[in-house]
Amino acid sequence: MARITKDQVKHVAHLARLSVTEEEVELFTGQLDAIIGFAEQLNELNTEGIEPTTHVLDVKNVLREDVVKQSLDQSDVLKNAPDQQDGQVKVPSILE
Asked: Which of 17, 41, 23, 34 is nearest to 6 (CA)?
């Protein structure tokens, strides 16, 4: 027994505003049925004692602490600025 019908594929295509041909409906029905069948196989696995994960790799937050560090002196930064005013780099206005 098929787990998904052609009508369901047409309905989803309609909701997604996709135009599909009868050949595509036939193709997608078979593909979606295979995907659902595979998902059902996964449900048969014994996962007792296995902790849920969100990623296969041990990914950790890569953000660092926000620590104040010595940076460039303001006069060194402004040394190469083409134009400056009141200790800031002056740029042409982009808004009228």
From this structure: 23
